[in-house]
Amino acid sequence: MVPELARTFDKRLRLAKWVRHALNHVFPDHWSFMLGEIALYSFVLLVITGSYLAMFFNASTAKVIYHGSYAPLDGVKMSAAYRSALHLSFNVRAGLLVRQMHHWASLIFVAAIVAHLMRIYFTGAYRRPREINWVIGLTLLLLAILNGYCGYSLLDDELSGIGLRIGYAIALSVPLIGPWLTFIFFGGTYPTNATIPHLYGLHIFVVPALLAILIAVHLSIIWRQLHTNYPGPGRTETTVVGSRLWPTYAAKSIGLCLIVFACITALGGLVQINPIWLYGPYAPAAAQPLAQPDWYLGWIEGAMRLYPGANLHLGSWLIPELFFAGVLLPCLVFAALYAYPFVERYFFTNDQDYHNVLRVPYQHPVNTAFGCAAFTFVLVLFFAAGDDIIAIATNGSVVTIRMIMRILVFVAPAAIGLFAYVACAAVRKRRFGPHA
Amino acid sequence: MSAEKPTGKISMFVAACAFVFAIASGVAFLHIFWTGYQTMLMGWTFGLSLALFAVAFILWAHGTSIRKNATGPRELPGSSQEDLEAVREEFYPAGQGAPRRNFLFAMGAAAVAFFGAIFVSLLRSFASPPDDSLFGTIWKQGDRLITSDGTPVSNDALMLGATMVVFPEGQVGSVHAQTVLIRVDPQKLQLPADKAGWAPNGYVAYSRVCTHAGCPVGQYEAKANLLLCPCHQSTFSVLEGGRPTGGPAARALPQLPLYSGQDGFLHASGDFDKPPGPGFWRYPWSRS
Fold first, then answer.
1. ipTM passes above 0.90
2. Residue B204: left (phi > 0), alpha (psi -120 to 50), or beta?
3. Contact (CB, 8 A) for A164 and A153
4. Nearest CA of chain B to the CA of A290: how many Å?
5. Is position A94 within any domain?
6. What pLDDT digit, counting tens, does each position of A21-37 carry?
7. What is the pLDDT of residues B53-82, one digit of tens each?
8. Containing domain of residue A189, as a range?
9. Contact (CB<8Å) A285/B249
10. In chain B, which residue's Cα lies nearest the Cα of A303?
């Protein structure tokens, strides 16, 4: 039966040679090479759960009065979008499960991309010939963050409204083109009924389509270039060591996919996330203390909190304080990431070789130290986004916590970077002798 | 390496067991889904089912020795000189090809530029051009202050140190117009000389939209006479005309000039002294 079917296709498409080549494809087995796969499988689950949610969600800001099964909000005026999200959560079979899975999957998606990025960085996998995938990978990260923001802004609950308000203010802060940019993206002066339909189109079609295309290109390039290997016996620039795609690697990868699905399903079923019915519909005049964005925007939120109140007046023009923390800093961070392999090559290493064997972090102390410092910088900003929560937890004052954070954001990266440099150099010396 | 090597018998046995339990758990999930659809039970059963399937596949891969530890060849990227030359010759045909080819390139580039420009201009349908609504100013001379339940605010509405949210008449609930009214001890006020008459009986009013990121400046600390924005913890001095005293905000809260009317109610004697809300680049065509 199967051989017959295979022959039927082969007669029409002449596949045997290509299939044989594909089945023999060798993939390395190291756990750290699975991080990108976790991101991939999270994306698959995001598409599946997202398609389900799109069937029930109503991206409309038309005002309605709620008379659904969640009694505490009975008779409350709200948008049709928020009502449909409540209906989905309380009245659709498995609706809440799928909604929570979708949210958890988005958090894990971005987390896996970031972990994958760090693995690539610290093992030198961004070097020639893999700069193209470095650039595509960073673009995927940007798109993932953008889509996360669009997604949690859709529901029109109190928290998503605050997020929209701040995103609007950030877009508006861009010099010269800010107002146009804001009007195109958000549809007019805040608050406007156009925002949620705009975000909906971006969230369910435009950005996922771009993600899917870029993921396909990313994977094709990996397929074409073959995966890197860690250094070790038998690992050379002209070989790839691991399991063949069929059947062992396929079984492992299916297993990993199922683990990702299992974890996200368990989280979606057991760990509450974004309980929008507790926040209530968005009321612009309601002040919600302790509001937090999803984790991947924490570093920008933290930068906005730490940035001292200083803006720039240029005649009758203004560059507001928000621009420096909310636009300039993220742009600089991503510009540095995009440029890293090229800057490193042209200005520092002048390394024109192809690298299919990775390096371990201690082999390049400067690279590792810089990466650790940059990561610490972002991590301190991330914690600064919770300065009010930390103040409550430690019974301190926000002013003190903020001052400590303002110092830490510079001191901690320097200290951690220095420590990483010394540690790597010491290990390298012990392994390779003083002249390595 | 032979597939017949009798390794991993235990792995295969456990994998088979996991597979059976995975199906059992999946059936339990279906039962819950069709009957009561309790979210947590569905999470347990479906999550467990997927996890057990994962265990089965991974144990299978762990227990087998088929085509593991393989080494494949890898060609360094970059084509041979002959291949590159061949592509070059075919891409740039000889003879009459050159001018014709350049014409094709020029047409292609022009088409891309033209349709690109059209595409960008289509963005126009997403928004009308930015206009004065960005400044969102709303108060007019003589407007009464209205609470969120629609009643006008009288001269004695607030005790010392108390606060309320007010709007212009007809715009209750408006995002831009939301204004915070506070009554402070007039002796303590340190308003600039040109605003000295803006606070009758110690009533001061400020825009409630944070000049930093636009959140409602919703908390008032009466002891320190500070307005606090809960989003990024900017603080503004109530006594000193809304001056920012801490946190990321750089610009003062716009102040609303007030007067106490003959009718016993509080009125605005004009608009905010500055456009409310987060700052932005101001076009020459806009109000400054």
1. yes
2. beta
3. yes
4. 7
5. yes
6. 999 999 999 999 999 99
7. 999 999 999 888 788 889 999 887 789 999
8. 27-285
9. no
10. B248
